[in-house]
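Interim report to the steering committee. The following record documents the input for Fucosyltransferase (434 residues).
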Amino acid sequence: MVKLKRILNYNMRLVNKVILYIYRRISRLTLNEVLFICAVFLIPFFIWFWSNREAKLSVNSSNPVIVWWTHGFPSTSETITCEDNLKCDVYSDNNLGNAYNVEAYLFYASNINFDDLPLPRKARDVIWGLYHEESPRNVRELLHEKTLSLFNFSATFSRYSDIPFPLQYLDSLSDITSKEYYIPTTEKNGLLKDISPVLYLQTDCETATERDAYVRELMKYINIDSYGDCLKNKELPQKFKDDYLNKLNDNEFLHYIARYKFVLALENGVCEDYVTEKFWRAIKVGSVPIYFGSPSIKDWFPNDKSAILIQDHPTPANMSEHIKKLLKNDHLYDEHLTHKTKESITNKRLIEEFRMRPYQTDALNVANKFECLVCRKIHEKKTRLQEHIVNKSHYDCPKPVSALTLTVNPSNDWVYLWHQAEKDAEEIFKRVYS
């Protein structure tokens, strides 16, 4: 019995030594060693996972096949089940085009390579679908109808798209009326001894709308606190400086910008229904947006006076006079904030759009909706595909207009690029249908 206890004690000490050794060794691992160990174990797992996933999909070859030709988004492969129990197999590997009878190719525009398309284009038999949520600066060729007409169906921010999502940056209607960040006008007035009445926060300094040129001129007439990389005249607090672009929707940051009476919200491109977080963030926190961008922005105002449009005060001097007028009259200023002060939204179009299309605030939900539309069209096969093509209304971005002059500036580099893209679009169209 005593001998057995000695053996057990010895074994326990040995185990403890081994555990201690392992612990000490792990604690001395370098980052590279940790990454290497993770890679050794995780890479085989992911290879097995994805190959097994594709194997599961390939079992049911009776479903129509849809392939995302572009990489990166949405990066899923699955059998989708849509309304009326319609099913399609969706793949994110464009190499499968040779192995399957593909009936539709989908393209995420930001990752499209017009030198690498699934040619020849079988327009009578194969659907091409375009998903695009970004401004023209990403893919200039899509500014022109020749390129757009390569596609049968679209999912874009335009209300005229097949799967529209003009409210992609509005998280909820309650964000509009909530007073979580709202600061009453009398309190904002007291803050003016420390901050300017107008906020400008921008990092992208070379844009088609020449917004920096506008703000630079406006600065001659009224004080503006400019953060970010463009026209910076004020530093952000230290807690926001590191990676501030990823903190724009943090509670603390929203409270910080809510102190300003006005926010300059100038888009980097002018397109119908292209309305970004620049507008909706100001609405959310209870600052008044001074807006330039979508020509139809009034259709999405919560109330009649929810923003001030640059085109209504066509020069920086005119705009500064209007701002100063509102600074002197709290009643006039508050007319722009009835979505906060009265917690009301009178725009029925906005309410109905958000209610009818709840998918549009989530990119993956939009992609799924788009896949199901295309899946249904494959199953129907009632009309010839070339009778339904994407046109300019699905992505309507005219020649770049300057916020400063409200006209096309011929010396703007983006105007030159617009014309160059028009030539490129012609060449792409000819190459696809040659």
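The first helix runs from residue 2 to 27. The committee is asked to note this result when reviewing the revised timeline.
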